[in-house]
Amino acid sequence: MCLIDKISEMVRGGRAPETQRLVREALEASGDAGEILEKGLLPGILAISERFRGKDFFVPETLLAARAFKFGLAELKPRLEKQEENPAGRVVVGTIEGDVHDIGKDLVSTMMRASGFLVEDVGSDAPADLFIDRAEAVQADIICISALLTTTRTAMEKVISRLKERGLREKYAVMVGGCPVSQSFADQIGADYYTEDALSCSRKAGEIMKEKAEGKLWGK
Ligand code: B12
């Protein structure tokens, strides 16, 4: 079995120190952090996601796999993320209140940083006003909200209603995502953008910055 496949297996098995060691070895061997993420770590966590799509969701096993994924991603971050003096833009990223899932949100942060964006990560279980307060503090361009539960995805709408109440709606592009979120759901809550994964999210952010440079206001 090749090193990359072993990484997937270690994530699936929830073996964090082994995952970290193998990621380090793979980096020394190939130096290709993108490939290790795409072909090693992600298939590992996605296999767990598939397995727990049904009702046999088993929290301890899933937690261990999530931890192993994070250990691996931490090794890759310095290679993936750029430190830009002139950032492509500023984004606030977080998982909405009531929701502790943060793997997808971390991937969005990492891909954004890899694309030269400055990221303010508000973590998981983040209240609507925290997204807005941090966006104001760092003079952000985009607010990215993640939700993994059907029960919490509705709370994303609160960020939009609070932006309106605070007279800030036009200032920020709001992008939403996560497995229970779709384009039609994004339209329903009045979000500006939806994309399926972290890579397309960072690409969309680049397009948003071009629209902003052309004078676009959001929420119209
Ligand atoms: C790992 C996991 C956990 C871990 C989370 C660990 C962590 N640190 O994140 C733990 C064990 C803690 C957990 C807990 C729970 N979980 Co859970 N969990 C999962 C699991 C297996 C995988 C999620 C994951 O990380 N996927 C991998 C990442 C890479 O994918 P992703 O997050 O979807 O992100 C991708 C895209 O969606 C997108 N994306 C994500 N965010 C954003 C944001 C933007 C702006 C954009 C554009 C894109 C984007 O980009 C990413 C890919 O590049 C899913 C199953 C599944 N099929 O998804 C269940 C699942 C989400 N969990 C579920 C449930 C029910 C729970 C619990 C309520 C269980 C319980 N009884 O306690 C609790 C929730 C507690 C809470 N209040 O939040 C259900 C949700 C069902 C539903 N319809 O609401 C699922 C679907 C499992 C199931 N079949 O029942 N869970």
Automatic annotation (TrEMBL):
Keyword Glycosyltransferase set for record: no
GO cellular component: cytosol
B12-binding domain sequence ranges: 88-220
SUPFAM superfamilies registered for this protein in UniProt: Cobalamin (vitamin B12)-binding domain, Methionine synthase domain
Protein family membership: Belongs to the methylamine corrinoid protein family.
Organism: Wansuia hejianensis
Pfam families noted in UniProt: B12-binding (PF02310), B12-binding_2 (PF02607)
Entries under InterPro entries matching the protein: Cbl-bd_cap, Cobalamin-bd, Cobalamin-bd_sf, Met_Synthase/Corrinoid, Meth_synthase_dom
Molecular function (Gene Ontology), one example: metal ion binding
Domain B12-binding N-terminal: 1-88
Keyword Metal-binding: yes
Protein name: Corrinoid protein
SMART domains: B12-binding_2
Biological process terms in GO annotation: homocysteine metabolic process; tetrahydrofolate metabolic process
Keywords tagged on the record: Cobalt, Metal-binding
Domain of life according to the entry: Bacteria
